[in-house]
Every structure is written in structure tokens, then in C-alpha cells.
Amino acid sequence: MKAYDGMYIDGAWRPAAGQDVIEVVNPADGQVIATVPAGTVEDVDAAVRAARAALPAWAATAPAERAARLAALRDVLAARRDEIAQTVTAELGAPLKLSQNVHAAVPIAVAGSYAELAATYPFEERTGNSTVLHEPVGVVGAITPWNYPLHQIVAKAAPALAAGCTIVVKPAEDTPLVARLFAEAVHEAGVPAGVFNLVTGLGPVAGQALAEHPGVDLVSFTGSTAVGRRIGAVAAAAVKKVALELGGKSANVILPGADLARAVNVGVANVMSNSGQTCSAWTRMLVHRDQYDEAVELAAAAAAKYGDRIGPLVNAKQQERVRGYIEKGVAEGARLVAGGPDAPREQGCFVSPTVFADVTPDMTIAQEEIFGPVLSVLRYEDEEDALRIANGTVYGLAGAVWAADEAQAAAFARRMETGQVDINGGRFNPLAPFGGYKQSGVGRELGVHGLTEYLQTKSLQF
């Protein structure tokens, strides 16, 4: 076990204000692998003050120079890709292949995309007799989750730095090690002191202090809708801008005539990826009544193949939460066709890949975000019924549509109340905006839309 010291503040690792530490546990075996400082209000204040002091110079830095620092950061992350993957596997429990191909690779691509955008974005433009300036919003307070620990930091820090903002990041307490690694990469890339700052700590202490701090101009949060509501209320009291990427209960709609086997197999893989700990996972599979039994059989068979291929959940609390939802599904009358509430292994925070059939739209497992490897298969009568079910939750983060005719799938997708829809297995695009409708959040991440979240506009009339 390694005991890490200090917070990354104003370009250096500085001793924490308090003595408390957070234990980092490998969820695959329950072993404590490290400790990090539990940040205090004083630590957060020091970090925000450093960010405010660094803001004028960084905001005035030429976009080309900001782009160069981001390109250097991308290169450092690429050079440390194996170390990143191993770190995520140790603290999150993700299989190493997933850590290499997703947890490490995607943040590298996102950092690279913002290096390019910083160099090409029109921070100044003419409109009639006015010059419109796109200026940094100021100091950003970023509170990030554990499920994609590095990606969520980069998805906030990279556009913030590209925009000319300075930032303080409070990472999830379950996965702080890769966040420390990122701070090292920022330092190695030559980002000036105070532009990026890192405070590890607990949400109710460090996270709340960051959201409430009067020196923070924008709060960017990814996590549960319940916590997002609280952050929104805190920010509203100070009229701060917020960017909230929250929960999801995404629908995977398989229309008649689609390649049923492919749609089901891809859908199951989507839910099981990252052990189901993905806010945009397609956890509701909607199938026409005439193909329902076949789809259920295919889904059960596909899920069974993931029994020894997925990692644990992040901690014992999350494991018990997911098992509780599975028990709730059984109690409300859903039919288990794969998996179940029993832990598949004696050691570690594992949950069996689970598929429910005979799920109705009003059941708890069809309405609430479970955040585990649990799929609900629902039947529909016709397209209008499918649309009603798909749009029938408080969430609207992602989704999928499958059809023999791509135009038919696109027409259906346009009517879905959700921020992103994959059509016939469309590939992930790091330049496409990501974010939700309804209670799935406010604002967008990734690409140019993610950059504009960190900008404010000023017009000069001549």
C-alpha cells in the first residue's frame, strides 16, 4: 500500500491542511491499495485562490499557446497509457483490456481534439457593426465521478483550458489515483502554475466547498441526478453557471425488420460494458411483441457469456445497491432469464450479468437508474407505443434505434427526448456533443459544444 501526500495546488504538491486520509480499495479483492489526503475547506480555498491568481495570464494567453499545452498534455497521456490503464484497473476494477481501450485511449483522443479546437475556434468574430468576443467564463470547479475517472476529468479540464479558464478538480473518492496521475501529466506538459489544481476529498466536504466557493464562476458536475439538484441549487444562490451531466435510463429500440440478433447482442454488450456503470447505457431494450420471445432468448444467451468477463462494481455499497434493485425487480413481477441477486463470487464486489423479461414501463427497474449490469426487456405494440415507452422516464441522456431502413430509424430517433441516439450501431464520436434532456442534465460535453460551455460572450459595437 502506498500513502500519497499532498494536493496539487499552484503548480506543486502541497501538504494537505488536515490529517485525515481516504483509503483506496481494489474492488476485485477488497484490498486497500493506497491512501490519499481527505481535502478540507482550507485545501479547496487554497486551490481556488491559486486558480484565480492564474486566471488573468492564462485567459490572455494566445489560443495557439493553449493549444500547444493541450497537445503536449495529449502526448504525455499517450506515453503513460499503460500506467493509466493499470491504475484504473487497480482502483476501479475494470478489466485491463477495457482500461487500455476505453479508460486510457478515449481521454487521449479527447485531449487531442481540444488541442485542435483551441487552435481553430473563432474566439473573435464580426457581426454587422459589432465584434463578438468569446471569453473564458473564469474559474471552473469540476466534480468528477468514479465510473470513467480519467475521461470525465479530461472532458472538463481540456475544454476549460482551451477556453482560457483555470480549474480546480475534485475527483471521486473511490478513484483518486488516476486523477493524481493526470495532475502529474499536466505538470509535465508545461501548463503554468495555478491553471490546473487538484484536491482529493469527500463530496460532502471538499465537493460542497468547491461548489459553494465564491471564487468559482462555473461548476461542472457529473454524477447522480440527486446530487446534481443540490449543486444546481447552491449555484443558483450565487447565480453561477452550471454544467450538469446526470443520470440516464436509455432505451434501445429495435424496430420490426431490424437485424434482431445484432441489435440484441450489441445492446447487451452496451449494458455490460464497464460492469454496467455507465450513465448512457441502454438499460431498457424495447422489442415488438412479435419478436419479443426471440429477443429475450438471445439476450439471456448473450448475457451468459459475460459471466467471467466483466469486472466488479466499484465498492460494496454499489454492489448491495444493484443487488437490491434486482430483488426489487423480482418482487414486482419481472422474470429473471439471466443472472440474479446472488453474488457470483465470494470475494470482490461482483454482480452477475442480469436480464429481466416481462418488464412493464411502470416497474422500478424500468424507471430508475441501477448503474450495474442489469438489462430490462420490454415489449411494445407499435411505433407509437415504443416512443411512449422510450420517452416515459424522467431521464433523457442517450439511446439507440435499430431498423432495416436507416431513414426510418433516424425519423424515430428525432422524436426521442434524449441528447444522443445511436442508429444501427453508430460509432462513438468524441467530437459529438454529449449531454441530456430533462433530468439527465444541463449543458453539453465534448467537441465544440463542450468548449462553448466554458465561454461567455461580449459584444463591442463600432
Automatic annotation (TrEMBL):
Q: Which keywords does UniProt give here?
A: Oxidoreductase
The stretch of residues making up the signal peptide is none
Q: What is the name listed in the Swiss-Prot or TrEMBL entry for this protein?
A: Aldehyde dehydrogenase family protein
Q: Which residues cross the membrane?
A: none
- The residue ranges of the Aldehyde dehydrogenase domain are 13-459
InterPro entries per record = Ald_DH/histidinol_DH, Ald_DH_C, Ald_DH_CS_GLU, Ald_DH_N, Aldehyde_DH_dom
Which CDD domains does UniProt cross-reference here?
ALDH_CddD_SSP0762 (cd07138)
- In which organism is this protein found? Streptomyces incanus
**What positions does UniProt annotate as the active site of this protein?**
E245
Q: Which family does it belong to?
A: Belongs to the aldehyde dehydrogenase family.
Which Gene3D superfamilies has this protein been placed in? Aldehyde Dehydrogenase, Chain A, domain 1, Aldehyde Dehydrogenase, Chain A, domain 2
SUPFAM superfamilies (UniProt xref): ALDH-like
